[in-house]
Every structure is written in structure tokens, then in C-alpha cells.
Amino acid sequence: MKFIISLGLLLSLCPSAFADGITFPDTKKITTQSIQPLKAAPITQETEKPAESNTKNQQQVMIPAGTQIPISSNYTINSNHVKAGDMIAITVNEAVTVNGRNVFKPGASGILYIGKSIPSRPCYGQAGHLVINSGYVTDIEGNKHFIHVVCSEKGISKRKRAMLLSATIILLPFGVFTEGKPAFLQAGRYLHASTSKNMTLNLASTPTQEQSR
Amino acid sequence: MKSLISLILIALFVISWISPACAETITLPAGTRILVTLPNNITHSSIESAGTIQAYLTEDIRENQKIVLQKGSMVLLHVDKVQNPGILGRPGSIQINGGTINSTQGTKIPLNISRLTSGKSRRKASIAYTIISIPLIFVCGIGIYMLPSALLTRGSGVTLSQGLVLNGSTASSANIEVTE
């Protein structure tokens, strides 16, 4: 009798184990929808771990202003296609540690603000110009840190050529309407950013850099 | 022995009923700021009105210290209007209005996201050349050649750059299941 009850329970257990409500550790939250052509996608999983860990043993870590963060643009940006105030996506390239604790994971996301964008023009070989000064990156706890960036990209000017052409009366229109090259911020190009102000992080009991090795 | 197996099975049965309760449901409020990134260049010639553009979530969306929408989640943006560059210096333009984001459970959350991008207008130049060319028709013959080119001057096209981040927000609140 007990054996029959057991079999009945086993049968009722099987379908419920495959119900949507249960999440197995191996299949956790990874769907084809979330897989995009973003380098940082797998690293997102790592950033969740500190949030899941025990919060009883929290440690405060102060990230001082001026902390260097290596970042890069995810895509090539053309000065002809963006304007001042636009935002572009960036990624943290390497882990940043403060007092032996990882505060920025490689692959962490961020934003850069376009400070100035001059498109190339068909006017005496005018080249494009792209200036980026500020933005923010996200730490392992999801806080945003404003950063300073020094990035000034210039396209190839064709002014000399335009002037030479203009000097000859017959080729004057060609000289006047010569267009320079737009400025590009190449995808994956390393930029050195630094945090603009002090910020304290309440880190959960995450392993230190040495422990994680 | 059979009773032991029975007990184990009963325990497993109870656990299987309790497990779904561990998945917490978090309400993502309406108006939550969302940033989406365009993975490809979008030009006026590559899309049509009432079409959709695929994008992805730029950064994790957290609520109560938990990630409710993961970075990289697919976003579909609705293209409201596409205008090709036209005569008299009219520029091309792309209007994006609204979209949806898919949560990991497959729930579609509507987004308030709007952006109008236009190319460079050459209307002033076109009108100026037209005004100049009309008297030149009567003064000398060159105006006959200038007038059509002045009228047919087109504005520049428009390109939404890859890597561009658009700012939006959730249009309505959504309940999202987050596992512990």
C-alpha cells in the first residue's frame, strides 16, 4: 500500500519539478533573449554574487576621487552621427581594486556623454571633431560613479588640399567643397577614466582579490 | 525500507511545493529609468515606418537591491515615422516612439521612449539659389541650368549611430519574478 502511495507521489512530483516556478542553479536566468552581442553579458552573472552573499559582514570601502578605471567604447562612434549631449555605451576593461577588494568588475557597464561633436563638412576640408569629458560607470553593487575622461578625436583635415585647389581659379569649386574626414572613436579603444569624487561602498562579504585567486 | 522511501518522497513532494515560494515577485514601478543601446547603425533607408528596431538594455535594472532586468535583455523600439530626404532641401528624419522590453520570464513591459533625429536641412540654401536663379533666367541663360538644381537640392540623410544610448522609462508597473 505504502509503495503505491509512494509511486503516486513520485508521479505527482515529476511534472511539478519541471514547472516554471522552480529555477535550477545551472539554468538560472540565462535565456536566448538576454544574450546579445555585448562583451559584458557573461560577467553580469558574476556581479550578482556579492548581492546574494550574506550581508551581515559588510565592509565599507572608500573609493577615492581620481581612482583610475580603464574603459573602452563598445562600438565605433562617428562624429557625423552623434551630437553633443548624446550618450554612448562603454565597458570597464579590467577589474579595479581598492584595498584588495574588487570594486569594479571587468565588463561592468557605463555611459559616456558626448561633450562636443563637430561633423565633417564640405567646406574647405573641414574635419570632424569629437570631445568626451564625462560619464559614469557602475560598481559591483550597482552604484553609479561619475568619471572624468580626456578624449578628443579629430578627423583628417583636407584644408591644405582645398586651399591649393582654390588657388587655381578653374578648380575653385572643388577646393571650396572639399570635405574633411569625420572623427571616429574606435570600438575597443582604451580610455583612461578617473572617478570624480569620493564614494563609500558597503560591500558584502565578497572575497578579496587574493582570496578569489 | 518502503516506509523510508515513502518518507523521502513525501519530503521531496513538500519541497517541490515550497520551492516556487522562494522566487520573490518584485514590482517594477512605472517611470523606472531605462537605458537602451542600439547595436547597429540605423539609417532612413534601412527601416520603414511602423517598423521595429532591435536594441538591448544597457545596464542592470535594480529594485530593492535585486536585479530585476538584466543588462543585455532585448528591447524592441517602435519606429513611428521615417522621412527620406526630399527636394527643396528637406532633411531625412527618424522618429522612435515607444517600445517594449522582454523580462527573463518573457513578460513584455511597455516603454516610454521617444527620439526624433533629423539630418541637416538645406532648405535655406535651396530657396536662396532659387531666388538668385530666377532673375538670372532673364538676364542670361545660366539661370535655366541653376533653377532645377536649386529646386532639386536634397537635405542630408539621417543615421542613428550604433552604440548610441537612448533614455526612456517604463510605461506601466510590472511584476517580475526574481529568484533568491
Features:
heterodimer, A: 213 residues, alpha+beta, six-stranded antiparallel beta barrel, elongated, disordered C terminus, B: 180 residues, Lipocalin, six-stranded antiparallel β-barrel, two-stranded antiparallel sheet, 3 helices, rod-shaped
Show the helix and strand layout.
The complex is a heterodimer of chains A (213) and B (180).
Chain A: H1 2-17, H2 43-52, E1 59-63, E2 68-73, E3 77-78, E4 87-92, E5 96-98, E6 101-104, E7 109-118, E8 129-138, E9 144-154, H3 159-167, H4 172-176, E10 184-185, E11 190-195, E12 199-203, H5 209-212
Chain B: H1 2-22, E1 24-28, E2 33-37, E3 42-43, E4 52-57, E5 61-63, E6 66-69, E7 74-83, E8 93-102, E9 108-118, H2 123-139, H3 142-151, E10 159-160, E11 164-170, E12 174-178
Antiparallel strand pairs in B: 1-12, 2-4, 2-11, 3-10, 4-7, 5-6, 7-8, 8-9, 9-11
3D architecture notes:
The complex is a heterodimer of chains A (213) and B (180). Chain A has 213 residues and is an alpha+beta fold. Helices cover 21% and strands 33% of the residues of chain A. Chain A is built from five helices and twelve strands. In chain A, strands 2-4-7-8-9-11 form a six-stranded antiparallel barrel. A two-stranded antiparallel ribbon of chain A has the order 1-12. Chain A has a two-stranded antiparallel ribbon with strand order 3-10. In chain A, a hairpin with a 5-residue loop joins strand 8 and strand 9. The model of chain A is unreliable at 14-55 and 206-213 (pLDDT under 50). Chain B is of the alpha+beta class and 180 residues long. Helix content of chain B is 27%, strand content 39%. In chain B, helix 2 packs antiparallel against helix 3 (142-151). Chain B is rod-shaped and about 115 Å long. Chains A and B meet through helix 1, helix 2, strand 3, strand 4 and strand 7 of A and helix 1, strand 10 and strand 11 of B.
